[in-house]
């Protein structure tokens, strides 16, 4: 029985260390990504965080002007989605969009964002 | 007749509508006119708005014999004098001033008047339109009336010139250029021709006068009439801007014809009936409300009063409702249009007729007696044994002196509507409740209307209520009034009205409650019984509460209709209504302001985190283009995006979608342009570095 216990302990330790190793390898791999992709990832994180804060607020006070809540949340989610699309198109390792110049992708991103925010502002009320 | 305000045509229409049956009584000019004149013509500090209106007022006052002219004299004479002395006066100016002066009698030197006379003579020589002739000739006539000699040297020529404007149908044109003829112009022309004849130094050619007399007869052929026998003149073509109503046109013709008849020898061939019809037209206007209409009416009636063709005699009834109870007399007045005495004559009641009661004899050929003191013809109607009702009386005037027939017009047979009223007796009134099987006369109760007893009846739905009575006139005949109703009122609210049937001798009604159940909504309870009898010829029309009846009715079945909602008291319907309390949706609970602002702060935190993250990543602006044109494009591009975001902010705060889209369109074009520039520059630099 003691051996069983020791095995368990060893397995737990190894799983923790496995998780740590995994985490470390992910971090180092991530550091290799180009800066512009990191900027876009940061932007996505920012947008999602803002959306989460709005949901928490709604959870506290109730959804009375529901249109305003939706406008706010969908603005954040929409811009996050557009940023993800931009990341896909700008990523040099992505073979599908090899021929698309990144400036063109950025122009699309700006245009779509402007349209999204026009609709959001109309819906804000 | 009702006074006439506004369009005279409306008054004439009212006349026509009211007189489809025999004539309402026309009255001669009376004190009502005199007091109305004082109210209509009111000078401001002795002055009227124009000399024309001054003349209207003064002439009306003169004819009716009312009004104080001293103040008008003081204020208006200077105006008149100025007008006469002014060198640039038009013919109309002289005409207005001179005719006002003829009534006021201002102190005007004979030199001024002679000067005016010579100016007028020159104007006549050079005149070519009808109005110029008219103003100058009548002006000269007034000058002559003031004592200054005014003789028209070429009277024949002037007569001929005026006559030349006449048409074959008796009308006149205003000048030789205008092809339209007008009846109003005919009146003016005739007055001018009369003036020419009186101003002429010799005889005017009689043949020409004969032709004009013939024209007048033709003019009278175009006279129009209403159903009640009134006659008037009106234009054939009505020009919008210069519309003169029938009154003004008729007045103009009357003045012209009367003036002409006064200066020529021999009679005009116009039947007296036509003058009578015109006088009737002028009198049925009543008291006009407009000063110009009032003047036209009074002025033309004054010409009719003293005209040389025939003077109408007006028969009027001071009262058209005669009572048998007070033994009234039928009174009739015969006067001229201004109420002056008529020559000796007799009034004959030719016929009375009624459409209603057939069995009373109509009266024929009764001569009215004359009361010299009050100037009234009267007749006692009680001995004639006429029953109450509505009658049409026909009168005829016969003059004592046969020579007067040439001077006066009596108007033939005249019809008037008269009401004879009296006391109607209710005979043998009986009310009671009957069983279905038949008469049970024991329960019939005799009513007595003189006493105020109320009957109390009780019935159920299987019984009937019966009411009967006879109506008797003062002469003992059966009377059929206009309204005979019985009203049952349930507890002061729901009312039912029933009409009584009349047989040859009596009125009766039998209310069968079984048949009426649905009509009275199956409502049991106390019903108040009211009897209403009324007629214009009844002096004692009444609405009596006979008593009440307690009805016991079965319960209403399912489908019976409810009684209609009773209207509330008549006057409270116009009062304030019940206040409506609106129930609004309770507003949603909002969070406290502090919480909201805290979370606003929390929302901005990720932005801060984003900026810090960017700095951590080592973001720089090295890629920003340095050469001027691309740099400018980039700056403008970023500025454009900032402006768009600002526009969105304003859109949220105040703009509407249309304005925003308009501005967004402009900004979008700008952004596309600058963005394309910037991004293509960046793309080209990046390919350059790649290839390099």
UniProtKB/TrEMBL annotation, chain A:
Does Transmembrane appear among the keywords?
yes
Q: In which pathway does it act?
A: Protein modification; protein glycosylation
Please list every transmembrane segment annotated in the UniProt record, as residue ranges: 42-60, 66-86, 106-124
Q: Which UniProt keywords apply?
A: Apoptosis, Endoplasmic reticulum, Membrane, Transmembrane, Transmembrane helix
Q: Supply the InterPro entries for this chain.
A: DAD/Ost2
Membrane-topology annotation of the record: Multi-pass membrane protein
Lineage, top-rank taxon, reads Eukaryota
- Compartment(s): Endoplasmic reticulum membrane
Gene Ontology terms describing biological process: protein N-linked glycosylation
Quote the cellular component terms of the Gene Ontology held in the record: oligosaccharyltransferase complex
Family to which this protein belongs: Belongs to the DAD/OST2 family.
Role noted for this protein: Subunit of the oligosaccharyl transferase (OST) complex that catalyzes the initial transfer of a defined glycan (Glc(3)Man(9)GlcNAc(2) in eukaryotes) from the lipid carrier dolichol-pyrophosphate to an asparagine residue within an Asn-X-Ser/Thr consensus motif in nascent polypeptide chains, the first step in protein N-glycosylation. N-glycosylation occurs cotranslationally and the complex associates with the Sec61 complex at the channel-forming translocon complex that mediates protein translocation across the endoplasmic reticulum (ER). All subunits are required for a maximal enzyme activity.
**How is this protein organized at the quaternary level?**
Component of the oligosaccharyltransferase (OST) complex.
Please state what the protein is called: Dolichyl-diphosphooligosaccharide--protein glycosyltransferase subunit DAD1
């Amino acid at each position: 029985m003691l051996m069983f216990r020791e095995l368990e302990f060893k397995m737990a330790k190894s799983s923790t260390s496995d998780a740590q190793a995994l985490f470390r390898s992910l971090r180092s791999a991530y550091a290799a990504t180009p800066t512009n992709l990191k900027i876009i990832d940061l932007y996505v994180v920012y947008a999602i965080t803002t959306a989460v804060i709005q949901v928490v607020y709604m959870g506290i006070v109730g959804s009375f002007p529901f249109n305003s809540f939706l406008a706010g949340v969908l603005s954040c989610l929409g811009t996050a989605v557009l940023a993800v699309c931009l990341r896909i198109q700008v990523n040099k390792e992505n073979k599908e969009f090899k021929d698309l110049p990144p400036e063109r992708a950025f122009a699309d991103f700006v245009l779509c964002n402007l349209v999204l925010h026009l609709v959001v502002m109309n819906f804000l009320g | 007749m009702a006074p006439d305000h506004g369009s005279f045509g409306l008054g004439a229409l009212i006349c026509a509508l009211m007189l489809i049956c025999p004539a309402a009584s026309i009255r001669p000019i009376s004190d009502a006119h005199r007091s109305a004149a004082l109210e209509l013509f009111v000078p401001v500090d002795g002055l009227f708005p124009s000399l024309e209106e001054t003349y209207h007022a003064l002439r009306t006052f003169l004819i009716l014999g009312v009004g104080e002219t001293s103040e008008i004299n003081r204020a208006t004479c200077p105006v008149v004098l100025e007008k006469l002395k002014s060198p640039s006066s038009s013919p109309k100016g002289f005409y207005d001033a001179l005719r006002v002066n003829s009534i006021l009698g201002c102190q005007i030197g004979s030199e001024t008047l002679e000067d005016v006379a010579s100016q007028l003579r020159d104007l006549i020589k050079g005149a070519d339109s009808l109005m110029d002739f008219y103003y100058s000739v009548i002006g000269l006539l007034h000058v002559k009336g003031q004592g200054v000699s005014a003789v028209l040297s070429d009277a024949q020529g002037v007569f001929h010139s005026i006559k030349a404007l006449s048409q074959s149908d008796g009308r006149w044109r205003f000048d030789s250029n205008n092809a339209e003829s007008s009846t109003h112009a005919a009146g003016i022309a005739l007055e001018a021709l009369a003036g020419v004849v009186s101003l002429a130094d010799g005889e005017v050619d009689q043949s020409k006068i004969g032709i004009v007399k013939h024209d007048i007869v033709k003019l009278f052929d175009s006279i129009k009439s209403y159903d009640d026998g009134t006659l008037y003149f009106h234009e054939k073509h009505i020009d919008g801007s210069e519309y003169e109503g029938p009154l003004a046109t008729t007045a103009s013709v009357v003045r012209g014809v009367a003036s002409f008849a006064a200066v020529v020898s021999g009679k005009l061939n116009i039947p007296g009936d036509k003058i009578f019809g015109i006088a009737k037209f002028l009198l049925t206007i009543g008291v006009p409300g407009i000063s110009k209409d009032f003047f036209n009416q009074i002025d033309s009636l004054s010409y009719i009063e003293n005209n040389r063709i025939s003077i109408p005699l007006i028969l009027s009834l001071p009262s058209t409702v005669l009572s048998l109870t007070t033994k009234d007399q039928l009174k009739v007045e015969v006067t001229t249009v201004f109420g002056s005495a008529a020559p000796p004559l007799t009034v004959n009641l030719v016929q009375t007729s009624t459409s209603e009661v057939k069995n009373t004899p109509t009266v024929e050929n009764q001569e009215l007696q004359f009361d010299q003191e009050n100037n009234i013809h009267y007749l006692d109607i009680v001995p004639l044994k006429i029953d109450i009702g509505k009658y049409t009386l026909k009168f005829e005037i016969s003059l004592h002196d046969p020579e007067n027939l040439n001077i006066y017009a009596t108007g033939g047979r005249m019809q008037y509507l008269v009401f004879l009223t009296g006391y109607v007796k209710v005979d043998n009134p009986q009310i009671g409740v009957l069983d279905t099987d038949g008469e049970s006369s024991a329960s019939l109760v005799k009513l007595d209307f003189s006493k105020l007893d109320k009957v109390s009846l009780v019935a159920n739905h299987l019984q009937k209520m019966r009411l009967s009575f006879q109506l008797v006139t003062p002469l003992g005949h059966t009377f059929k009034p206009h309204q005979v109703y019985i009203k049952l009122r349930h507890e002061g609210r729901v009312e039912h009205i029933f009409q009584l049937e009349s047989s040859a001798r009596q009125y009766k009604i039998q209310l069968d409650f079984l048949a009426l159940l649905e009509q009275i909504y199956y409502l049991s309870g106390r019903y108040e019984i009211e009897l209403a009898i009324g007629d214009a010829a009844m002096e004692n029309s009444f609405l009596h509460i006979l008593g009440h009846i307690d009805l016991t009715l079965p319960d209403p079945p399912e489908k019976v209709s409810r009684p209609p909602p009773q209207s509330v008291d008549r006057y409270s319907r116009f009062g304030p209504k019940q206040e409506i309390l609106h129930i609004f949706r309770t507003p949603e609970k909002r969070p406290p302001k502090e919480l909201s602002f805290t979370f606003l702060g929390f929302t901005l935190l990720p932005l801060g985190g984003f900026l810090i993250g960017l700095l951590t990543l080592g973001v720089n602006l090295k890629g920003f283009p340095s050469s001027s044109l691309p740099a400018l494009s980039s700056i403008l591009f970023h500025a454009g995006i900032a402006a768009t975001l600002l526009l969105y902010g304003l859109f949220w705060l105040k703009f509407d979608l249309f304005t925003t889209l308009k501005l967004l369109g402009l900004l979008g074009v700008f952004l596309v342009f600058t963005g394309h520039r910037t991004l293509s520059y960046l793309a080209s630099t990046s390919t350059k570095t790649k290839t390099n």
